[in-house]
Structures are given as C-alpha cells and as structure tokens.
Amino acid sequence: MCSAIDQATRLTTLAGASLRSSCAHPKGFRRSASFPRRDTTPPATKSFRSFFNSLRYACLLACGIALFASTAFAQIPVPSTPPPPSGQDVNAGKQGSSIKVDVNLVVLHTTVLDDRQRFADGLKSENFRGFEDKVEQKLSVFKREDVPVSMGLVIDNSGSMRDKRPRVNEAAITLVQASNPQDEAFVVNFNDDFYLDLDKDFTSSIPELKEALERIDSRGSTAMRDAILGSLDHLKKASKDKKVLLVVTDGEDNASRNSLEKMIREIQKTDTVIYTIGLLGQENKKEAKRARKVLEQISAASGGLAYFPENVDDVHNI
C-alpha cells in the first residue's frame, strides 16, 4: 500500500467479482421528444472541475519490490527437449511443465486529494512511501499521465428526473468530450429497471453516446442499486485497466431487488471507482438525508467521491 505525506489518498486495488444483474435493452423502448435548450447560461456558484479531475488523471506509483527466490516465486527453467521424430505426436507422452517467474514491479494507480476534496497537483516521488508487509520499498518509477478509462454513465430516468435530464445529459456529453480520446463508455438509464442504451458494449463515439443519453422515458421508480450492480458486471467486458462509474440520481432507491449491503460488498470486490452526483431536493429532508448517506457510502466503498450540487444547473458547470 502507498500513502501520500500530508495528503488524502484514495486507492482501489481489489479484484473483481461476479454479479447476477445484467444490462438489457427494454422491450418496446420509447424515445422521448426532444427538449429545447435553454437560452441563458446560469452563473457558476462554485468551481466543480476539481471533482472530475480525479476522473482524468492518475499518479502511477511503481514500487520495485525485489522478491527473494523461493518455491512460490522462483524462476524454474524448463529443460529443452529435442524435436520429436517425423510423424510423431508432439503431445504424446508429454506430462506438462510450468514456469514460475519473479514479479519485480508492482504498479499502483492512485488519485490524491487535499482535505477539501480537490485534486492535489505538483506531487513528486518524495511525497510518497510504499510498503510491503510493513517494510518500506523503493519507488522505482513515478509518473503522472492521462490514463484511458472504461466509463459507465449510470443515469436516473425515473419520473422525478424528467425536467432535469436535459441538463444532466449536456454535462455528461461535456465530460466525455473533454476526456481522453482512447476512453470507452457506455450508458445505463434506470427507473423501475435498468437498460444498456447502446447497440454495442462500449463506444468512443460522441454521437452514439448522445443518442443513448437522449433516450429519455422518465417514469416510474428508482432501482439504483440494481443499475450499479448491472453496470459493474458490464465493466467486466472493458478493455481498459482503469474503470469508472458516474452515477447521477435525484432521490432514494425505492425499486431495487438487491440490498444496500450486497451492493456495498460487491463494490468492494471490484477495481471500479464510483463517483456519485445527488440532485437531492429539500421537499423531504429525511429522504434526502438518507439518499445522501447512501451515495457517500457507495463512493467511499470504491475510493471515489460523492457530490451534491445545489441545483441541476451546477452539474452543467462541470
């Protein structure tokens, strides 16, 4: 594990897990009518760019760990054998062999934030220390780069989101347009159920993502937990090492078949970082408080962040 001196560090290095949920196109899916774009641009009340900087950049810490030769890690040479006589089966009488090799380099992706949840820039290798079984190791390689990601846009499509979706969609497209061209993404819309709204598993095409986001049929309830589990399952098909989910909702889950406890357990088993945006109204403060707590739990379990804008226009300011 690596830690930053005087910085708050988010690390996610857990292995993936199998899930039962899956994404599917809804039967008879109805596309919504187009929404007019607002003519005025709302004033920015805060700067939210730092929230998404952690989506775009990662420090790579490579801890060069010299593993001593042992039964588990030693490299065992395989003796060479002469080629078989002509016409003889090369596998005949072969008992098999194995190769074990040293693993001398451990790569850790990490995002570093300050105590105000802002992306920490300008860090150097001396700001980090790496440990293996409580023994400090040498940091052989340290670099910052724009790492391509596989990203899922998981958007609430329940009835209460009808007036909010156009602005959320604009913000999502802006985020994708500012991303690494090598990124791949997919869109999951959810209400009573959840749907993969692409004709393929992933795409880097802005028009295709825009079309998927605009399949708005805002109705019904909120099955957010099921949608997250299904999206995690879908990310098993991803081609990029770094995986991200961006979840946008405006309320409390009231339709999922999977429990909160199960969802948190499954999140902790994956290497996916989840960022949540809660567009929580104040009409029902108790419900908003519960929803906020859940979104914070989701992000914390994955090493991500939870964000709660004052209104939907603030999302567009991303």
Give a brief rundown of this model.
This protein is of the alpha/beta class. Helix content is 23%, strand content 23%.
Percent of residues in helices comes to 10-25%
What's the count of strands?
12
Q: Give the count of helical stretches.
A: 7
Average pLDDT? 75
Rg, Å, rounded: 23 Å
Unreliable spans are 1-49, 54-80
Query: What would CATH call the homologous superfamily of the domain at 17-56 and 148-316?
Result: von Willebrand factor, type A domain
Topology:
Blueprint (H helix, E strand, L loop, with lengths): L1 E3 L3 E3 L38 H8 L1 E7 L40 E9 L14 E5 L2 E11 L3 E8 L8 H13 L6 E7 L3 E3 L9 H8 L10 H11 L7 E8 L10 H9 L3 E7 L6 H18 L3 E2 L4 H5 L2
Notes on the structure:
With 318 residues, this protein is α/β, with parallel strands linked by helices. The protein has a domain at 17-56 and 148-316: von Willebrand factor, type A domain (Rossmann fold, 3-Layer(aba) Sandwich), CATH 3.40.50.410. The protein is 23% helix and 23% strand. The chain has seven helices and twelve strands. The strands form two sheets. It has a six-stranded antiparallel β-sheet. Strands 9-8-7-10-11-12 form a six-stranded mixed β-sheet, with helices on both faces. α5 (260-268) runs parallel beside α6 (285-302). The radius of gyration is 23 Å and the shape is globular. The model is unreliable at 1-49 and 54-80 (pLDDT under 50).
